[in-house]
Amino acid sequence: MSNKRNDTSLTAALAQNTLDEIPQPKSDAREIVGLVKHSGKIDGYQLSDGSTVSKEEGVRMAKEGDIRGVGVAHRGDTEYLKSIPDGSDNNNLGNLPSVTG
Predict the structure, then answer these.
(1) What is the mean pLDDT of residues 69-74?
(2) What is the pLDDT of residue 45?
(3) Which residue has the higher pLDDT, 17 or 49?
(4) I need a labelling partner for 1 at 20 to 30 A (CA). Which of 19, 47, 55, 78 fits?
C-alpha cells in the first residue's frame, strides 16, 4: 500500500513540474466545467458561472487568480491551462465535457 501512495505522489510531483506557473486563486475564483472545442482542439473554457472565455482569456484569468484548479504550461510559444495534479482524474481538464461556445 505504501508503494502505491509513493507512486501517486511521484506522479503528481512530476506532472506538477510540467507547469510553468501555478497561480494563487482568489477566494471568488471560478472553476472550469467544460471545454469549448473546434475541430477537436480546445478553443476556450466554460466556467462555473456559465460564461465562456477564449483559451487566451482563460490563461490571463488564471494568471490573475480568477480561475482555480489550473496551472499555466506552454507548448512552443503557446500558453495553455492544465489541471493541477490532485490525485483525482475526475476534475482533469481532459475529462470535462465539450460544450458549444
Answers:
(1) 94
(2) 96
(3) 49
(4) 19
CA distance 34 to 85: 18
d(CA 101, CA 98): 9
Q: How does DSSP assign 54-90, residue by residue?
A: EHHHHHHHHHTT-B-SEEEEEETTEEEEEEPP-S-ST
Instruction: Please say if the pLDDT value at position 56 is more than 50.
Output: yes
Instruction: Retrieve residue 97's grid coordinates.
Output: 465535457
Q: How far apart are CA 84 and CA 81, in angstroms?
A: 9
Q: Which amino acid is at 74?
A: H
SS (H, E, C) 90-101: CCCHHHCCEECC
C-alpha cell recorded at residue 12:
503528481
DSSP annotation of 40: T
Amino acid in position 20: D
Q: Which residues contact 88 (CB under 8 A, 6 or more apart)?
A: none
| Positive/negative CA dihedral, 91, 54, 29, 76 | positive
